[in-house]
């Protein structure tokens, strides 16, 4: 499954991460959001990354500067710098990423702040916050904090040939307690008292060779280990000796990295254990839930996906015909990799298990579970028929027991039908003969619970039905699903559909027009027949789009 470079992925995808943000439900339960970071500093949501189905890229997030003096100022990366390697740190509910010679923090409210180094000033100076200097930090990775209980430190390769590792100690004031993480206390992350700056320290060793990958694993010591990848070998560095010595004494030297798999300077694609294994050109590492390392091993126009277990045994999992790098495991278990030329994403279903985003849940308290209105109302709907319903809805031949009072309180259409003076308002049954049964079941769940997951295939039917039954919030949610799944093959049909439905769909129609103008050449190339349909069914819309495409092309020529 490959997502080729479209205008949304016009720049090189230079890393993946999945963060947690409060969802739309009233209880604020945390929901995963997978982000793709491009080299020019845009974060684009990877829609569908939490389910095993089709994937698509959403529009880039609108990012703002943190603490801009009360002004909502758009975040701009310094000219000449590139962004890469985002990583989510659950204990801070934040994403950290590299930019130029610096490291930034992306907060849950999509504000960005510089936390270490200077984006355009290279150097080799340990220090605190923006006083530190680094040379192009890359392959940012998260590891255990001082107590080994929460992820609280970051590690990065630095230097002209990526031969050194720095540790970025995150302030304790940024940490959220595990109970707060589970509750989604985004506002509390980083709001505590105490030191608010990152401390940058160079670890006292050098990589065996120019390194092309870095990741943290939980095995090998009380604080885990770092695994460094050169082109042809993996080396493991046990953590724990780089902290302050006892009583303030100088820290003991960190142990030297030890060979885990492969051999320096000897290329090949050979499975085996330890020095028996051979790698061609390693370009990125990630770790699964079992502590196994997944890596992209490129060479001779192909990329071989390899797995290395903690004992150093290398196994080939698959091969693709192109050079890909920077692997990451998505929440759905897919392995995602990025390609530089042309910019594209590769997604492989290898049945992997990602590392959990949250720490293990504490033991369940004795007594009944916490009750929520959302869950109780959903349970009430699922329990039907249980003798409590006082109305039957007949939809497409299906008979659905429901509660009259809930429908009246939650939906203006049902209020008008059931208490608005209609002759059949007190009848025990109400028919909706023209409603799509599958779409209506989703609508009914929204009426009871206030939220529903809308499959892309049913989104148009749900949007139409929600508009007809006077549920504008659900109609808007369904339209957003339609927009997120638009493609060159479907955009014309969606445009004609939205135009036909009128006023409630004008916002979607405008967004679909904008999407078409960005993808005009792609639509002409891959779905030219649909343009003939557009010309026949809506000549006025066709002319508007053609005029817009011509104007857009002329503007690009003027600014080229």
Automatic annotation (TrEMBL):
Classification via InterPro entries: 6-blade_b-propeller_TolB-like (IPR011042), ABTB1 (IPR044515), BTB/POZ_dom (IPR000210), SKP1/BTB/POZ_sf (IPR011333)
Highest taxon of the lineage: Eukaryota
A single Gene Ontology CC term: cytoplasm
Leader sequence segment: none
Keywords assigned: ANK repeat, Repeat
PROSITE patterns xrefs: BTB
CDD domains: BTB_POZ_ZBTB_KLHL-like
Domain BTB as annotated: residue spans: 389-456
Pathway: Protein modification; protein ubiquitination
Protein name as annotated: BTB domain-containing protein
């Amino acid at each position: 499954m490959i997502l080729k470079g479209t205008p949304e992925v016009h720049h090189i995808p230079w890393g993946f991460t999945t963060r947690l943000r409060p969802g739309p439900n009233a209880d604020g339960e945390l929901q995963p959001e997978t982000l793709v970071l491009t080299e020019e500093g845009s974060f684009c949501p990877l829609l569908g990354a939490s389910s095993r189905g089709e994937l698509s890229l959403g529009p880039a997030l609108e990012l703002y500067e943190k603490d801009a003096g009360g002004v909502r100022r758009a975040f701009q990366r310094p000219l000449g710098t590139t962004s890469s390697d985002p990583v989510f740190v659950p204990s801070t509910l934040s994403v950290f990423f590299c930019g130029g010679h610096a490291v930034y923090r992306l907060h849950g409210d999509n504000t960005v702040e510089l936390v270490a180094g200077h984006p355009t000033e290279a150097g080799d100076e340990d220090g605190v916050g923006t006083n530190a200097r680094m040379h192009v930090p890359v392959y940012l990775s998260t590891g255990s904090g001082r107590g080994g209980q929460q992820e609280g430190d970051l590690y990065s390769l630095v230097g002209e040939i990526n031969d050194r590792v720095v540790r970025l100690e995150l302030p304790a004031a940024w940490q959220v307690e595990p109970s707060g993480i589970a509750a989604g206390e985004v506002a509390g992350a980083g709001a505590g008292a105490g030191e608010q700056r990152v401390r940058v320290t160079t670890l006292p060793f050098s990589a065996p060779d120019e390194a092309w990958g870095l990741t943290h694993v939980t095995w090998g010591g009380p604080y885990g280990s770092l695994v460094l990848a050169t082109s042809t070998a993996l080396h493991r560095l046990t953590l724990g000796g780089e902290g302050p010595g006892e009583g303030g004494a100088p820290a003991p030297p960190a142990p030297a990295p030890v060979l885990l798999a492969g051999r320096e300077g000897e290329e090949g694609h050979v499975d085996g254990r330890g020095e028996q294994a051979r790698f061609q050109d390693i370009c990125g590492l990630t770790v699964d839930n079992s502590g196994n390392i997944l890596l992209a091993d490129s060479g001779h126009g192909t990329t071989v996906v390899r797995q290395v277990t903690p004992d150093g045994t290398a196994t080939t999992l698959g091969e693709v015909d192109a050079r890909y790098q920077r692997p990451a495991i998505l929440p759905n278990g897919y392995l995602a990799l990025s390609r530089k030329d042309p910019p594209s994403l590769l997604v492989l279903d290898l049945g992997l298990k990602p590392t959990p985003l949250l720490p293990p849940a504490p033991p369940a308290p004795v007594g009944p579970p916490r009750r929520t209105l959302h869950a109780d109302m959903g349970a009430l709907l699922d329990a039907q028929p249980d003798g409590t319903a006082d109305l039957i809805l007949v939809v497409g031949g299906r008979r659905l027991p429901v509660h009259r009072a809930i429908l009246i309180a939650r939906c203006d259409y049902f209020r008008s039908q059931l208490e608005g003076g209609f002759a059949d308002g007190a009848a025990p049954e109400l028919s909706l003969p023209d409603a799509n049964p599958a779409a209506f079941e989703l609508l009914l769940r929204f009426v009871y619970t206030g939220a529903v997951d809308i499959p892309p295939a049913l989104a148009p039917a749900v949007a139409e039905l929600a508009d007809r039954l006077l549920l504008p919030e659900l109609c808007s949610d369904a339209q957003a699903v339609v927009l997120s799944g638009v493609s060159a093959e479907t955009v014309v049909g969606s445009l004609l559909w939205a135009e036909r439905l009128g006023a409630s769909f004008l916002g979607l129609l405008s967004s679909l027009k904008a999407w078409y103008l960005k993808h005009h050449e792609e639509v002409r190339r891959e779905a030219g027949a649909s343009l003939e349909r557009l010309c026949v069914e809506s000549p006025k819309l066709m002319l508007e789009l053609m005029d817009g495409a011509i104007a857009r092309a002329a503007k690009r020529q003027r600014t080229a």
